[in-house]
Protein backbone atom coordinates (compact mmCIF):
# COMPACT_ATOMS: atom_id res chain seq x y z
CA UNK A 1 0.00 0.00 0.00
CA UNK A 2 1.15 3.54 -0.80
CA UNK A 3 0.04 4.60 2.66
CA UNK A 4 2.99 2.74 4.18
CA UNK A 5 5.38 4.91 2.19
CA UNK A 6 4.36 7.74 4.49
CA UNK A 7 6.88 7.43 7.31
CA UNK A 8 4.86 9.61 9.66
CA UNK A 9 1.80 7.39 9.26
CA UNK A 10 3.85 4.22 9.80
CA UNK A 11 5.28 5.63 13.03
CA UNK A 12 1.89 6.81 14.25
CA UNK A 13 0.35 3.43 13.37
CA UNK A 14 2.95 1.53 15.37
CA UNK A 15 2.68 4.08 18.17
CA UNK A 16 -1.06 3.31 18.36
CA UNK A 17 -0.21 -0.40 18.28
CA UNK A 18 2.16 -0.18 21.26
CA UNK A 19 -0.16 2.18 23.10
CA UNK A 20 -3.04 -0.29 22.70
CA UNK A 21 -0.73 -3.12 23.71
CA UNK A 22 0.28 -1.30 26.89
CA UNK A 23 -3.36 -0.70 27.77
CA UNK A 24 -4.72 -4.16 26.89
CA UNK A 25 -2.03 -6.39 28.40
CA UNK A 26 -2.05 -4.61 31.73
CA UNK A 27 -5.84 -4.58 31.98
CA UNK A 28 -6.18 -8.28 31.16
CA UNK A 29 -3.32 -9.33 33.44
CA UNK A 30 -4.75 -7.26 36.28
CA UNK A 31 -8.15 -8.98 35.86
CA UNK A 32 -6.48 -12.38 36.29
CA UNK A 33 -4.49 -11.03 39.25
CA UNK A 34 -7.68 -9.92 41.03
CA UNK A 35 -9.36 -13.26 40.37
CA UNK A 36 -6.36 -15.11 41.81
CA UNK A 37 -5.68 -12.98 44.88
CA UNK A 38 -9.15 -11.70 45.75
CA UNK A 39 -11.45 -14.48 44.61
CA UNK A 40 -13.50 -14.01 47.80
CA UNK A 41 -14.13 -10.37 46.82
CA UNK A 42 -15.51 -10.37 43.26
CA UNK A 43 -16.51 -6.74 43.71
CA UNK A 44 -12.83 -5.87 43.16
CA UNK A 45 -13.07 -6.99 39.54
CA UNK A 46 -16.15 -4.82 39.07
CA UNK A 47 -14.31 -1.90 40.68
CA UNK A 48 -11.41 -2.39 38.26
CA UNK A 49 -13.80 -2.21 35.28
CA UNK A 50 -15.19 1.04 36.70
CA UNK A 51 -11.66 2.45 36.90
CA UNK A 52 -11.38 1.91 33.14
CA UNK A 53 -14.79 3.37 32.22
CA UNK A 54 -15.51 6.16 34.74
CA UNK A 55 -12.79 8.54 33.44
CA UNK A 56 -14.74 8.86 30.18
CA UNK A 57 -17.56 10.59 32.06
CA UNK A 58 -15.19 12.96 33.84
CA UNK A 59 -12.91 14.08 30.99
CA UNK A 60 -14.91 13.69 27.76
CA UNK A 61 -15.87 17.40 27.66
CA UNK A 62 -12.23 18.52 27.57
CA UNK A 63 -10.59 15.71 25.57
CA UNK A 64 -11.48 17.11 22.17
CA UNK A 65 -10.70 20.68 23.25
CA UNK A 66 -7.15 19.67 24.22
CA UNK A 67 -6.64 17.85 20.91
CA UNK A 68 -7.76 20.94 18.96
CA UNK A 69 -6.19 23.74 21.01
CA UNK A 70 -2.77 22.30 21.88
CA UNK A 71 0.05 20.72 19.91
CA UNK A 72 -1.46 17.37 18.94
CA UNK A 73 1.91 15.68 18.64
CA UNK A 74 2.92 16.79 22.14
CA UNK A 75 -0.46 15.79 23.56
CA UNK A 76 -0.17 12.23 22.18
CA UNK A 77 3.49 11.93 23.16
CA UNK A 78 2.96 13.30 26.68
CA UNK A 79 0.08 10.87 27.18
CA UNK A 80 2.61 8.06 26.72
CA UNK A 81 5.16 9.59 29.12
CA UNK A 82 2.53 10.23 31.79
CA UNK A 83 1.17 6.69 31.50
CA UNK A 84 4.70 5.31 31.67
CA UNK A 85 5.30 7.28 34.89
CA UNK A 86 1.97 6.12 36.35
CA UNK A 87 2.88 2.54 35.45
CA UNK A 88 6.04 2.86 37.58
CA UNK A 89 3.87 4.01 40.50
CA UNK A 90 1.51 1.09 39.80
CA UNK A 91 4.47 -1.27 39.95
CA UNK A 92 5.35 0.05 43.41
CA UNK A 93 1.71 -0.04 44.58
CA UNK A 94 1.54 -3.75 43.75
CA UNK A 95 4.60 -4.41 45.93
CA UNK A 96 2.90 -2.51 48.76
CA UNK A 97 -0.33 -4.51 48.23
CA UNK A 98 -2.25 -1.24 48.39
CA UNK A 99 -5.47 -1.97 46.52
CA UNK A 100 -6.91 1.60 46.87
CA UNK A 101 -3.69 3.05 45.43
CA UNK A 102 -3.74 0.51 42.60
CA UNK A 103 -7.33 1.49 41.72
CA UNK A 104 -6.40 5.19 41.84
CA UNK A 105 -3.48 4.66 39.44
CA UNK A 106 -5.65 2.60 37.09
CA UNK A 107 -8.22 5.42 37.13
CA UNK A 108 -5.62 8.10 36.35
CA UNK A 109 -3.97 6.00 33.65
CA UNK A 110 -7.31 5.38 31.98
CA UNK A 111 -8.15 9.10 32.14
CA UNK A 112 -4.87 9.98 30.38
CA UNK A 113 -5.55 7.32 27.73
CA UNK A 114 -8.73 9.16 26.73
CA UNK A 115 -6.60 12.07 25.47
CA UNK A 116 -4.31 9.90 23.32
CA UNK A 117 -6.52 8.66 20.50
CA UNK A 118 -8.34 11.95 19.60
CA UNK A 119 -4.92 13.62 19.29
CA UNK A 120 -3.43 10.69 17.34
CA UNK A 121 -6.46 10.47 15.01
CA UNK A 122 -6.29 14.21 14.34
CA UNK A 123 -2.61 13.91 13.45
CA UNK A 124 -3.38 11.12 10.98
CA UNK A 125 -5.93 13.38 9.28
CA UNK A 126 -3.24 16.03 8.83
CA UNK A 127 -0.61 13.79 7.19
CA UNK A 128 -2.77 11.81 4.73
CA UNK A 129 -4.74 12.79 1.67
CA UNK A 130 -8.48 12.17 1.47
CA UNK A 131 -8.09 9.05 -0.68
CA UNK A 132 -6.07 7.38 2.10
CA UNK A 133 -8.50 8.00 4.98
CA UNK A 134 -10.46 4.78 4.37
CA UNK A 135 -7.26 2.72 4.22
CA UNK A 136 -6.10 4.23 7.51
CA UNK A 137 -9.49 3.50 9.11
CA UNK A 138 -9.29 -0.09 7.85
CA UNK A 139 -5.82 -0.60 9.29
CA UNK A 140 -6.88 0.84 12.65
CA UNK A 141 -9.94 -1.43 12.66
CA UNK A 142 -7.74 -4.44 11.93
CA UNK A 143 -5.51 -3.40 14.83
CA UNK A 144 -8.54 -3.25 17.13
CA UNK A 145 -9.73 -6.65 15.88
CA UNK A 146 -6.37 -8.29 16.56
CA UNK A 147 -6.45 -7.14 20.17
CA UNK A 148 -10.07 -8.30 20.49
CA UNK A 149 -9.06 -11.78 19.31
CA UNK A 150 -5.73 -12.14 21.09
CA UNK A 151 -5.89 -9.56 23.89
CA UNK A 152 -7.24 -11.90 26.56
CA UNK A 153 -4.86 -14.68 25.52
CA UNK A 154 -1.80 -12.39 25.46
CA UNK A 155 -2.68 -10.95 28.85
CA UNK A 156 -3.21 -14.42 30.30
CA UNK A 157 0.04 -15.77 28.83
CA UNK A 158 2.13 -12.88 30.13
CA UNK A 159 0.48 -13.05 33.55
CA UNK A 160 1.11 -16.80 33.79
CA UNK A 161 4.74 -16.61 32.63
CA UNK A 162 6.13 -13.43 34.23
CA UNK A 163 3.39 -12.49 36.69
CA UNK A 164 1.56 -9.23 37.31
CA UNK A 165 4.81 -7.28 37.86
CA UNK A 166 6.17 -8.55 34.53
CA UNK A 167 2.92 -7.55 32.80
CA UNK A 168 3.17 -4.05 34.28
CA UNK A 169 6.78 -3.86 33.07
CA UNK A 170 5.59 -4.77 29.55
CA UNK A 171 3.06 -1.93 29.84
CA UNK A 172 5.86 0.49 30.74
CA UNK A 173 8.04 -0.56 27.79
CA UNK A 174 5.06 -0.33 25.40
CA UNK A 175 4.26 3.24 26.45
CA UNK A 176 7.91 4.29 26.15
CA UNK A 177 8.19 2.83 22.62
CA UNK A 178 4.95 4.56 21.62
CA UNK A 179 6.23 7.88 22.96
CA UNK A 180 9.55 7.56 21.14
CA UNK A 181 7.79 6.73 17.86
CA UNK A 182 5.59 9.82 18.13
CA UNK A 183 8.58 12.00 19.02
CA UNK A 184 10.41 10.77 15.87
CA UNK A 185 7.58 11.95 13.59
CA UNK A 186 8.20 15.01 11.41
CA UNK A 187 4.73 16.51 11.28
CA UNK A 188 4.04 20.00 9.87
CA UNK A 189 2.86 22.70 12.25
CA UNK A 190 -0.40 23.06 10.31
CA UNK A 191 -1.36 19.49 11.31
CA UNK A 192 -0.10 19.82 14.88
CA UNK A 193 -1.61 23.25 15.61
CA UNK A 194 -4.47 23.87 13.16
CA UNK A 195 -5.91 26.56 15.46
CA UNK A 196 -2.60 28.29 16.18
CA UNK A 197 -0.46 28.21 19.30
CA UNK A 198 -2.18 28.43 22.68
CA UNK A 199 -0.84 28.53 26.22
CA UNK A 200 -2.32 26.88 29.31
CA UNK A 201 -2.97 30.30 30.86
CA UNK A 202 -5.34 31.04 27.98
CA UNK A 203 -7.50 28.04 28.89
CA UNK A 204 -10.35 28.50 31.37
CA UNK A 205 -13.46 26.56 32.28
CA UNK A 206 -15.55 29.07 30.35
CA UNK A 207 -13.43 28.79 27.19
CA UNK A 208 -13.35 24.98 27.47
CA UNK A 209 -17.13 24.80 27.74
CA UNK A 210 -17.40 27.18 24.80
CA UNK A 211 -15.18 24.93 22.69
CA UNK A 212 -17.14 21.90 23.86
CA UNK A 213 -20.42 23.52 22.79
CA UNK A 214 -18.83 24.51 19.48
CA UNK A 215 -18.07 20.85 18.83
CA UNK A 216 -21.65 19.67 19.34
CA UNK A 217 -23.01 22.70 17.46
CA UNK A 218 -20.74 21.86 14.53
CA UNK A 219 -21.98 18.24 14.52
CA UNK A 220 -25.65 19.27 14.64
CA UNK A 221 -25.19 21.90 11.92
CA UNK A 222 -23.58 19.39 9.55
CA UNK A 223 -26.40 16.92 8.89
CA UNK A 224 -24.19 14.30 7.25
CA UNK A 225 -21.76 14.41 10.17
CA UNK A 226 -24.62 14.20 12.68
CA UNK A 227 -25.95 11.07 10.95
CA UNK A 228 -22.49 9.45 11.01
CA UNK A 229 -21.95 10.29 14.68
CA UNK A 230 -25.36 8.71 15.34
CA UNK A 231 -23.81 5.56 13.85
CA UNK A 232 -21.34 5.39 16.75
CA UNK A 233 -24.29 5.55 19.15
CA UNK A 234 -25.71 2.48 17.40
CA UNK A 235 -22.36 0.73 17.71
CA UNK A 236 -22.61 1.39 21.44
CA UNK A 237 -25.94 -0.45 21.51
CA UNK A 238 -24.40 -3.44 19.71
CA UNK A 239 -21.36 -3.40 22.01
CA UNK A 240 -23.54 -3.26 25.10
CA UNK A 241 -25.72 -6.15 23.96
CA UNK A 242 -22.80 -8.29 22.85
CA UNK A 243 -21.00 -7.63 26.14
CA UNK A 244 -23.51 -9.71 28.08
CA UNK A 245 -26.06 -11.50 25.84
CA UNK A 246 -23.66 -14.19 24.53
CA UNK A 247 -22.77 -15.16 28.12
CA UNK A 248 -26.47 -15.42 28.97
CA UNK A 249 -27.08 -17.44 25.82
CA UNK A 250 -24.30 -19.89 26.58
CA UNK A 251 -25.19 -20.24 30.28
CA UNK A 252 -28.97 -20.48 30.06
CA UNK A 253 -29.56 -22.04 26.65
CA UNK A 254 -26.74 -23.50 24.55
CA UNK A 255 -23.92 -24.80 26.79
CA UNK A 256 -24.76 -24.41 30.51
CA UNK A 257 -21.87 -26.63 31.65
CA UNK A 258 -19.14 -24.94 29.58
CA UNK A 259 -20.48 -21.43 29.13
CA UNK A 260 -17.16 -19.72 30.11
CA UNK A 261 -15.29 -21.66 27.43
CA UNK A 262 -17.79 -20.92 24.68
CA UNK A 263 -18.18 -17.28 25.74
CA UNK A 264 -14.48 -16.86 24.95
CA UNK A 265 -15.13 -18.52 21.57
CA UNK A 266 -17.72 -15.82 20.94
CA UNK A 267 -15.05 -13.10 21.38
CA UNK A 268 -12.69 -14.98 19.08
CA UNK A 269 -15.39 -15.48 16.40
CA UNK A 270 -16.41 -11.81 16.48
CA UNK A 271 -12.79 -10.64 16.45
CA UNK A 272 -11.85 -12.88 13.53
CA UNK A 273 -14.93 -11.65 11.68
CA UNK A 274 -13.96 -8.03 12.29
CA UNK A 275 -10.43 -8.79 11.12
CA UNK A 276 -11.76 -10.44 7.94
CA UNK A 277 -14.28 -7.68 7.30
CA UNK A 278 -11.67 -4.99 7.87
CA UNK A 279 -9.36 -6.60 5.33
CA UNK A 280 -12.15 -6.87 2.77
CA UNK A 281 -13.35 -3.34 3.48
CA UNK A 282 -9.85 -1.89 3.10
CA UNK A 283 -9.47 -3.56 -0.30
CA UNK A 284 -12.85 -2.49 -1.71
CA UNK A 285 -13.25 0.92 0.00
CA UNK A 286 -12.07 2.81 -3.08
CA UNK A 287 -14.55 1.01 -5.34
CA UNK A 288 -17.73 1.89 -3.42
CA UNK A 289 -19.35 4.97 -1.96
CA UNK A 290 -18.98 5.09 1.84
CA UNK A 291 -22.74 4.81 2.36
CA UNK A 292 -22.79 1.65 0.22
CA UNK A 293 -20.32 0.08 2.67
CA UNK A 294 -22.75 0.91 5.48
CA UNK A 295 -26.35 0.40 4.40
CA UNK A 296 -26.20 -3.16 3.08
CA UNK A 297 -23.91 -4.58 5.84
CA UNK A 298 -26.11 -3.00 8.54
CA UNK A 299 -29.20 -4.54 6.93
CA UNK A 300 -27.53 -7.98 6.77
CA UNK A 301 -26.39 -7.57 10.40
CA UNK A 302 -29.98 -7.01 11.52
CA UNK A 303 -31.05 -10.27 9.84
CA UNK A 304 -28.14 -12.19 11.33
CA UNK A 305 -28.87 -10.91 14.85
CA UNK A 306 -32.43 -12.17 14.41
CA UNK A 307 -31.07 -15.62 13.54
CA UNK A 308 -28.86 -15.53 16.68
CA UNK A 309 -32.03 -15.63 18.74
CA UNK A 310 -33.54 -18.29 16.52
CA UNK A 311 -30.69 -20.81 16.54
CA UNK A 312 -30.23 -23.49 19.22
CA UNK A 313 -26.90 -24.85 17.93
CA UNK A 314 -23.70 -23.40 19.36
CA UNK A 315 -21.65 -24.03 16.21
CA UNK A 316 -24.17 -22.21 14.03
CA UNK A 317 -24.31 -19.44 16.64
CA UNK A 318 -20.54 -18.89 16.43
CA UNK A 319 -20.58 -18.99 12.61
CA UNK A 320 -23.28 -16.31 12.54
CA UNK A 321 -21.26 -14.20 14.98
CA UNK A 322 -18.25 -14.48 12.65
CA UNK A 323 -20.36 -13.25 9.70
CA UNK A 324 -21.71 -10.38 11.83
CA UNK A 325 -18.13 -9.35 12.59
CA UNK A 326 -17.35 -9.51 8.87
CA UNK A 327 -20.25 -7.11 8.22
CA UNK A 328 -19.22 -4.70 10.97
CA UNK A 329 -15.69 -4.32 9.59
CA UNK A 330 -16.64 -2.40 6.40
CA UNK A 331 -19.09 -0.25 8.38
CA UNK A 332 -16.33 0.91 10.72
CA UNK A 333 -14.04 1.60 7.77
CA UNK A 334 -16.72 3.59 5.96
CA UNK A 335 -17.41 5.82 8.97
CA UNK A 336 -13.73 6.11 9.92
CA UNK A 337 -12.72 7.00 6.37
CA UNK A 338 -15.65 9.35 5.75
CA UNK A 339 -15.43 11.53 8.86
CA UNK A 340 -11.98 13.08 8.15
CA UNK A 341 -13.29 14.13 4.73
CA UNK A 342 -16.22 16.09 6.14
CA UNK A 343 -14.77 17.42 9.42
CA UNK A 344 -12.71 20.59 9.33
CA UNK A 345 -9.16 19.89 10.66
CA UNK A 346 -9.57 22.63 13.27
CA UNK A 347 -12.48 20.75 14.86
CA UNK A 348 -11.45 17.12 14.39
CA UNK A 349 -10.42 16.72 18.04
CA UNK A 350 -13.69 18.06 19.40
CA UNK A 351 -15.72 15.86 17.05
CA UNK A 352 -13.63 12.77 17.93
CA UNK A 353 -14.04 13.61 21.60
CA UNK A 354 -17.80 13.01 21.31
CA UNK A 355 -17.51 9.48 19.94
CA UNK A 356 -16.37 7.65 23.07
CA UNK A 357 -18.99 9.16 25.44
CA UNK A 358 -21.78 8.56 22.93
CA UNK A 359 -20.81 4.91 22.56
CA UNK A 360 -20.49 4.55 26.32
CA UNK A 361 -23.91 6.17 26.87
CA UNK A 362 -25.54 3.79 24.39
CA UNK A 363 -23.73 0.82 25.91
CA UNK A 364 -24.80 1.79 29.43
CA UNK A 365 -28.43 2.27 28.36
CA UNK A 366 -28.44 -1.12 26.64
CA UNK A 367 -26.93 -2.91 29.64
CA UNK A 368 -29.39 -1.14 31.95
CA UNK A 369 -32.36 -2.22 29.82
CA UNK A 370 -31.13 -5.82 29.69
CA UNK A 371 -30.69 -5.83 33.48
CA UNK A 372 -34.21 -4.40 33.87
CA UNK A 373 -35.95 -6.66 31.36
CA UNK A 374 -34.21 -10.03 31.79
CA UNK A 375 -35.45 -12.25 33.34
CA UNK A 376 -38.12 -10.32 35.29
CA UNK A 377 -40.08 -9.05 32.28
CA UNK A 378 -38.59 -10.91 29.33
CA UNK A 379 -37.95 -14.50 30.36
CA UNK A 380 -36.53 -15.71 27.04
CA UNK A 381 -33.19 -14.39 25.77
CA UNK A 382 -34.31 -14.87 22.17
CA UNK A 383 -36.64 -11.86 22.41
CA UNK A 384 -33.70 -9.63 23.34
CA UNK A 385 -32.01 -10.60 20.07
CA UNK A 386 -35.23 -9.96 18.16
CA UNK A 387 -35.53 -6.52 19.75
CA UNK A 388 -31.95 -5.62 18.88
CA UNK A 389 -32.45 -6.90 15.31
CA UNK A 390 -35.48 -4.63 14.87
CA UNK A 391 -33.50 -1.60 16.10
CA UNK A 392 -30.64 -2.33 13.69
CA UNK A 393 -33.12 -2.91 10.85
CA UNK A 394 -34.67 0.53 11.40
CA UNK A 395 -31.17 2.04 11.40
CA UNK A 396 -30.36 0.41 8.05
CA UNK A 397 -33.60 1.76 6.56
CA UNK A 398 -32.92 5.22 8.01
CA UNK A 399 -29.43 5.23 6.48
CA UNK A 400 -30.77 3.93 3.15
CA UNK A 401 -33.12 6.90 2.88
CA UNK A 402 -30.79 9.62 4.24
CA UNK A 403 -27.15 8.84 3.44
CA UNK A 404 -27.29 8.80 -0.40
CA UNK A 405 -29.03 12.19 -0.46
CA UNK A 406 -26.71 13.75 2.15
CA UNK A 407 -23.66 12.26 0.45
CA UNK A 408 -24.62 13.71 -2.93
CA UNK A 409 -25.28 17.12 -1.36
CA UNK A 410 -21.87 17.04 0.36
CA UNK A 411 -20.06 16.08 -2.85
CA UNK A 412 -21.82 18.87 -4.74
CA UNK A 413 -20.79 21.34 -2.04
CA UNK A 414 -17.20 20.10 -2.20
CA UNK A 415 -17.12 20.70 -5.94
CA UNK A 416 -18.41 24.25 -5.46
CA UNK A 417 -15.74 24.90 -2.83
CA UNK A 418 -13.03 23.58 -5.12
CA UNK A 419 -14.20 25.86 -7.93
CA UNK A 420 -14.25 28.85 -5.58
CA UNK A 421 -10.75 28.07 -4.31
CA UNK A 422 -9.34 28.72 -7.76
CA UNK A 423 -10.19 32.39 -7.38
CA UNK A 424 -10.70 32.88 -3.62
CA UNK A 425 -9.04 31.87 -0.33
CA UNK A 426 -10.32 28.78 1.47
CA UNK A 427 -13.76 28.93 3.10
CA UNK A 428 -14.24 30.24 6.60
CA UNK A 429 -14.66 27.52 9.23
CA UNK A 430 -18.16 28.75 10.09
CA UNK A 431 -19.32 28.23 6.52
CA UNK A 432 -18.35 24.57 6.38
Automatic annotation (TrEMBL):
GO terms for cellular component: plasma membrane. The keyword Transport applies. It is a multi-pass membrane protein. Keywords: Cell membrane, Membrane, Transmembrane, Transmembrane helix, Transport. SUPFAM superfamilies: MFS general substrate transporter. Residues 8-407 form the Major facilitator superfamily (MFS) profile domain. Gene3D superfamilies: MFS general substrate transporter like domains (1.20.1250.20). The chain crosses the membrane at residues 12-35, 50-70, 82-108, 142-159, 224-249, 261-284, 291-310, 316-338, 358-378, 384-406. It is found in: Cell membrane. GO terms for molecular function: transmembrane transporter activity. InterPro entries: Drug_antiport, MFS, MFS_dom, MFS_trans_sf. Its main location: membrane. Signal peptide: none annotated. It comes from the Bacteria. This is MFS transporter. It comes from Metabacillus litoralis.
Amino acid sequence: MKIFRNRNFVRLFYAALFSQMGTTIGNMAFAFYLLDHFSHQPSYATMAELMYSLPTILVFFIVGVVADRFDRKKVAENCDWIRAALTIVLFCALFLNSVPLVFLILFLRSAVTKFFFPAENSLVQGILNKEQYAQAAGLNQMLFSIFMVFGVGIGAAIYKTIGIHGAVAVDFVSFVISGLLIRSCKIPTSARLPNGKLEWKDISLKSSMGDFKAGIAYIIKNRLLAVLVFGFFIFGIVNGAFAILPMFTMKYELTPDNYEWYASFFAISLGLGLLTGSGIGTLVASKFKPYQLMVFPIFVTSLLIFFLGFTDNVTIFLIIVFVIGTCLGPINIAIGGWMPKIVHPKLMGRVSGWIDPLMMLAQSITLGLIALLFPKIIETIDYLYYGMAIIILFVSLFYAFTLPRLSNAFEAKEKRVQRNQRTKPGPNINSI
